[in-house]
Amino acid sequence: MTALFKYLGFLLYANMLAVGIAYIYLLKIRRRIGFHTVMNSATITGGFLAVVTGVILIYQFPLHYVLVTIVTTVVGMGAGALFGGLFDFKTLITGYTNGLMMGLMSPMIGAVAKNSTLFLLFIEVLFIFSIFLVICSSRKELYAEDDNDSPEPSYDK
């Protein structure tokens, strides 16, 4: 077992912290970002948090498959619903169902991976990149909106 597997709890905590920071950031600017950005953030965060949580928990507790599946599904549904709830009920349902489906499938993926360090690193890099992409896309939309609000220069004299 590699040294990375000793710190799976800290890795899970860091993932939850990254999602929490992204949620707080999006909560502050939710009135100024569009429907599509919130929809994408709900599906990405709910789904990827469920996948990463499922893989980490099945690596830690390989004999508790049912409990890991239940916990992972609840985490995915909760994250998807929280991020979807930033906008409206339709987005909440979309994030919820995506978190549900990914939460049900992720322990299967983790069980098939059989404690592969390479797979865990791949999933983690994808997760961090996805959270970064959610924040960057909302910032880009936010600043694009600010640029459109600026008055047009007048060339009439």
From TrEMBL:
Report keywords, A-Z.
Membrane, Transmembrane, Transmembrane helix
Keyword Transmembrane helix part of the UniProt annotation: yes
Q: Does the keyword Membrane apply?
A: yes
Bilayer-crossing residues are 6-26, 38-59, 65-86, 93-112, 118-136
Q: Please report the name of this protein according to its UniProt entry.
A: Uncharacterized protein
Q: Which organism is it from?
A: Pueribacillus theae
